[in-house]
Amino acid sequence: MIKKAILILMVVGLMMGCSQVESSEFEEDEIVEEAQVEIVEEVDKGQAQEENQLDDPVDPREAIDLSLEPNESGRIMVLMYHNIGEEEEEWTRTPDNFIKDLQVLYEKGYRPISLKDYASGNITTPQGYTPIVITFDDGNKNNFEYMEDGSLNPDSAVGLLMDFHKKNPDFSPAATFFLTGDIPFGQRELIGQKFEFLLNKGMDIGNHSKTHANFTQASAELLQREIGEQAQYLESFIEAEGYKVNTIALPYGTRPKDESKTSYLKEGTYDGVPYDNIAILNVGWNPGYSPYDERFNPESIPRIRASEMKVDNVGMYNYLEYFDNNPDQRFISDGNPDIITVPDDRAEQIGSQQDREIYIYDKK
Ligand SMILES: [Zn+2]
């Protein structure tokens, strides 16, 4: 403390001495004040570092490169796909167009994370990059197919994702497949093998209801059967211990009109076995909130159609352009899942109930 005081006095003396000739008194005061603040901050930082070295040798904040302008209050896109097929249609992307999507995302600095990580705020995206969530609905054969010789169909969604990942190892194939019915991916005898492959590669299996039911008028009983029975059925093919099918994409994006039934989308019991969904996905139409934003609601996560057909100006390419033009709206990772880094002008969007450290910095 004494050292600090002497330092400040010395600087104040110096500043006064040399500024008297040219500056007016008003400017002089300002300069002196600035100099004082700077010195105090520097001394404090030095002390903090010394203290840190005793308990914890590395301050993880120092690994965060603020010149990359991390903004963990920004928006995250959850992309919705359905089919991959030879002809481009409203709900079908050709292999070439799907690869084009991945390439554009890659070049623009987007990197896939799992839906479960998005929902729980475990953002592991390297710093300077933007997380993105890729989803496929319905579990058609064109999503994941093994050929007669046992090889993976290179033009299926999984084949294309794996190939793109091989060529670009820093672009994870993490995608969630929302499955309906009792023959997910259209090959009954290969269900278990496919699930094992997906989970080994960091992809996820999600719930899309037992019969692709419309939930608008559904009773509590029906909701629990559609969701609970399907979760149990899908889990019965999974050998990985503890893996839960606990994310759901609402069929047709429908919710019960009777709000007293809405809670069954998240929690319920079927045949004595409870379920608890950590993420409930809608069909449209905009980018999701940061998982640290107070407005983030994992029970109602919007998605964006990954298509160029009939997207009504709210498709994936519209939002890519929007984020190009409004980079401050985009989530930029700080590379550390335990710290939430935000520029000071966005700090108020971060909810107060965080179990992670919040790091607010001065955006120049
Ligand atoms: Zn569907």
Question: What features would you highlight for this structure?
Answer:
364 residues; alpha/beta; TIM Barrel; 2 domains; six-stranded parallel β-sheet; two-stranded parallel sheet; 9 helices; 14 strands; 15% strand; disordered N terminus; binds zinc ion
Number of strands: 14
User: Largest beta sheet, briefly?
Assistant: 6 strands, parallel
Shape: globular
Percent range for β-strand residues:
15-25%
Mean pLDDT, to the nearest integer, reads: 88
Structural class: alpha/beta
In N-to-C order, the SSE pattern is HHEEEHEHEHEHEHEHEEEEHEE
Quaternary form: single chain
CATH homologous superfamily placement of the largest domain = Glycoside hydrolase/deacetylase
CATH topology of the largest domain: TIM Barrel
Task: Write a brief caption for the model.
The protein is α/β, with parallel strands linked by helices.
Write the layout of secondary structure elements.
Elements: H1 2-19, H2 25-55, E1 77-81, E2 83-84, E3 92-93, H3 95-107, E4 110-112, H4 115-120, E5 130-138, H5 157-167, E6 176-179, H6 191-200, E7 204-207, H7 220-235, E8 247-249, H8 263-266, E9 267-270, E10 273-276, E11 279-281, E12 304-305, H9 316-325, E13 339-343, E14 357-361
Parallel strand pairs: 1-5, 1-12, 2-3, 4-5, 5-6, 6-7, 8-11, 13-14
Antiparallel strand pairs: 9-10
Helix pairs in contact: 1-2, 3-5
The structure holds zinc ion.
Residues 137-138, 208, 212, 251 line the site of zinc ion.
